[in-house]
Amino acid sequence: MRVFGRAAQHARGERRSANDDVGTNAHTTSQEGAKMKVAKRSPAQMESHRPQPDTGTLPLQVEDITPSWLTSALARSHEGVAVESLAIDDVMYGTATKVRVRLAYNATGRELGLPESLIVKGGFVPEYRNLNAYIYEYEAKFFKEVHPCLRANVPACFYSETESRSGQSIVILEDLRSREVEFCRVQRTLTFAQAAANLDAQARWHAQFWQSPALESDGELAWLASQDPLPDGESGTYHWGQLKPEVFARYTQLPRGAAVPKRFHDRDWMERALLDLRAFDRIGPMTFLHGDVHLGNLYFDRDGTPGFLDWQSYRRGPWAHDVTYFLISALDIADRPRWERALLEYYLERLAFHGVNNPPSIESALDAYRRHIVYGLFFWLVNPVEWQVEVNNCAVAPRFAMAELDHEIHDLMGR
Fold first, then answer.
1. Residue 190 domain-assigned?
2. Cα distance between residue 77 and residue 81, in whole Å
3. Same domain for 348 and 208?
4. In this structure, is residue 1 part of a structural domain?
5. By Cβ atoms counted within 10 A, which residue in 6, 29, 74, 107 is the most buried?
6. Do 201 and 145 belong together in one domain?
7. What is the pLDDT of residue 31?
């Protein structure tokens, strides 16, 4: 196992929770949906975190997920295991397809305590696979390269593989429903204590990679994408596409557009503000980001430990991206102005606790927080309904719009 950044200082004394997995997200048809406590793992769970070699042809359709293929996949890290039968309990379509399978094992699998229910996640819809092959591969690479050492409560992974020929990537994850975790929902905002626990969890991995050599151009994680609110080239195709005048105008005519002040319907201002943020983000410390910390990608274990789903947008970038996006999307509009400073102060305290020698001051943190609000406003204002149902967009876009008004961002950026 490779250990990056500050993790090398703690690797001998820390264990990472593997008692997590996929249940939902906040995509259209279904959802994948204080200190962090580290749960104990069974030998089978600990074994599941080791990278696995290629098993050959990956299934391209749900019907191709067979006992034979699952045996070959799971046996790579659990010698002697065989899947004797399977039943498909659920198929959850979204950017990626999640298939909940219920398995019967041979004696070896039962002795190892392998879970009866697992999530097989991949590109099982041809049109989506053609469009999103890079996203699927990127998430599979997370579970191979980053997941084994990341100090976070992340779904346990039993298999991760990419097949470049077909564009398919598949991960096999523990089914979180088996542990009765509480999945967060966009319509159900967090309490102060829940938000604080989540910030502590973020501070933990932000500190682990804070200005880490692994993130440099010659580091072990140099392949990570960089956070950029409005990137050039192919990586910015989506961003610039949503800023096309006719496309942007179409989104402002949806119910979410009626839920935000009309001043934020100004497409030209939005572009200038995002470019201002882009320039701002080029200075300051870099760390490892989840990249998409909204309620649809979060859950809580029964003991209150926060966990994180959907690792398709992880990247290197400034801490304020994760923290701002999380706080504004997760807090009630009335609670956020009363709590945000105290929560930011708590996050900075936890950064120091987890090993950052010189965390930002509260003044510089507030400035970075203010400037990052525009990113969330843009993305929830132009979020395709194929990614988030409109009721979710209508819930979250106004949270960012109100934060923009409270912090007078319209006068600070995009002028």
1. yes
2. 9
3. yes
4. no
5. 74
6. no
7. 33
Instruction: Specify if 332 maps to a domain.
Output: yes
> Which of 76, 13, 20 lies closest to 50, judged by CA?
76
Let me know whether 278 and 174 are in one domain. no
Fill in the amino acid letter for 412: L
C-beta separation of 330 from 189 below 8 A: yes
**Which amino acid, 271?**
E
Q: Is 397 in the same domain as 312?
A: yes
pLDDT at 4 > cutoff 60: no
- 113 C-beta neighbours (distance < 10 Å), count: 12
- Tell me which residue has tokens 């990127």: 138
Same-domain check for residues 233 and 336? yes
Quickly state the pLDDT bin for 33 (edges 50, 70, 90). very low
- Has residue 6 got a pLDDT over 70? no
Judge whether 277 lies within some domain: yes
The domain of 231 spans 182-412
Number of domains making up the chain: 2
pLDDT digits 0-9 by tens, 72-97: 999 999 999 999 999 999 999 877 89
pLDDT tens digits for range 370-384: 999 999 999 999 999
pLDDT of amino acid 56: 52
Backbone φ/ψ region at 4: left (φ over 0), alpha (ψ -120 to 50), beta: beta
Same domain, yes or no: 51 and 151: yes
Q: Decide which of 121, 144, 179 is a domain's last residue.
A: 179
Structure tokens at 111: 């002795």
Q: What is the pLDDT of residue 71?
A: 98
Name the token pair of 42: 């069974």
How would you label 122-143 residue by residue, b for 16+ Cβ within 10 Å and e otherwise? bbbbeebbeebbebbbbbbbbb
**Integer Cα distance of 410 and 415 in angstroms:** 8
Of 164 and 65, which is predicted with more confidence? 65
